[in-house]
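Example 3.2
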Amino acid sequence: MPPFAGLATNPDPTRTKPDSNIVTVDVGGQIFQTTKQTLTLGGSKSLFSRVSESPFIDRDPELFSILLSLLRTGNLPSKAKAFDIQDLIDEAQFYGVEPLLVNSLSNPSQFDAFNLEKSLVLPLNGRDSPSAIATTPFGSVHVAHGSKITSFDWSLRRKSTVLTEFTAVDSLLAISPSLAAAGATDFSGLQILDLENGFVRKSLNWENVTRSGSTVQGIGSSPEFLFASFESARRNSNSIMVYDLQSLSPAAEIGHCEIYGADIDSAIPATKLNWVSGYGLLMASGSHSGPSGVFGNIKFWDLRSGNVVWEVKEKVDCFSDVSVSDDLSGMFKVGVNSGEVFFADLRNLGGENSWVCLGDGRKVVNGGKKEGVGSKIESHGNQVFCSKGGDIEMWTEVMMMGHSKKSEDGLEGRVFRKNSLGRVKDMGGSKITNLAFGGNKMFVSRKDQQNVEVWQSSVRGF
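Structure, written as C-alpha cells:
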C-alpha cells in the first residue's frame, strides 16, 4: 500500500468538515488531530499541506508525532532523543519539511559559546591533515586536505570526497552547500568547484603586465561579491580581484601592485580577506617573515572608490592572525611575538595607538621566543576565539556598571574578559591549525590529525 493511501481519491467527507479547522488523520493506525494552520507551517510544497486529503498514511506514527510537534513549536520535543537522527532526516525529506528540521538542529542562533563541548569527530580519507575549513550558515562544511575536498552535509552524517587538480588546497570558501571556491599557492587560478557532481564549474585567472600565471593567496566574499587575492608566479606583482557572486564575472580590481626593487610593503599579498558589512569595507591583511622579523599590513578597501580608507603597518608585534567583527565593531589580532590578543575599535580607526592589549601587556614583544607563531583568531557573534597551541581562549566584551572611563577621543573605554571554553576533558591536544564556525557549531583541526573536531552546545531534542 502506498504511503498516502487513497490520496485525493474518494476522500472521507467526514474526515474534515468544510467549516471545521480541525484535521484528523490516521498514520500507521494511530489517530492524530491538528489544525489546518499547523499543517500549513510545513509550506505549500510540503506533503503536510495535503494530509487532510488522505484518510490513511502508511508511515511511522512515532516519527510523524515528532515532526508534527516540530510544526507546532519550531523545536523538536525532548522525546526526539530516542530516535536516530538519520530516521528523522529521512522522514522529514519524505514530508518535505527538511528545512524546518535543519533550522531546529543547526540554527546559528543556537550557538552558545559558553556551553560548547566536543561532540563529534569527522574522519577524513587519506593521510593529509586539513589545510582549510569552509562552512555554510546552517552547518554543512567543506574540508580541504591535500588535493582532496571532503564535504559533510548539515547533519554531518553524510559525506562525499572529490579530488581536485591542486597538489594541495590552501584557500577554500563555501559559496553554497554544494559549491566552493578553491585555490593554492603553487597552482595557477581560482577554481569554482561543483562538489556534488565533482567538476570544475569555472576557472578564474588574473594576469599581470608580463602575462605570467598567478596563484591564489586568499579568498573572501560578501552577499554580492567574491574576492580573490592573487600573486604572480614570479612574485613580482599582486592584486585583489572582485567578482560578481552570481555570474562570476569580473566586477573590479583593487590593490594592483607591480613590485620594483626593494619595495617590500607592496610585495606582501593579502592572505586573508574579510568583508565588514556594517562599514561596507573589505579588510585585506598579509604578513611576511624575514631576517629582521615578521612585518605586515592591514588595509580597509572601499569597493566603490577602489581606495584604501585606513591602513596599519605592523612591525613591532606583527599579527600571527587577524580578524574583524561587525557585532563587536572591532578588529582583533594575536601578536606573533607576544602571543597576546589585541583589540582596535573600528569607530576610531586611524587614531594613535589603535591597538589595545587584552592580555598581559607586560610581555616583551621585541626579540626572544615568538609565542604567537601559528596562532589563529576568529570572531563569531559577540565572542572572539584565539588558539594558543592546543587550547582555545574566548574573549567577550563585558559591560561594567558605572564604568564611564573615556579615552582622549571621547569614546567610552571597552572592557574584554577571557573566559573558559568547554569542558576540561575536551581541552588540549595537538596544535590547532584551523578554526571555523557554521550553524551552531565550531570546527577545529589540529596538526598531524586526519580529522575535524565538532564543538557544539546541546540542542533541544538532542
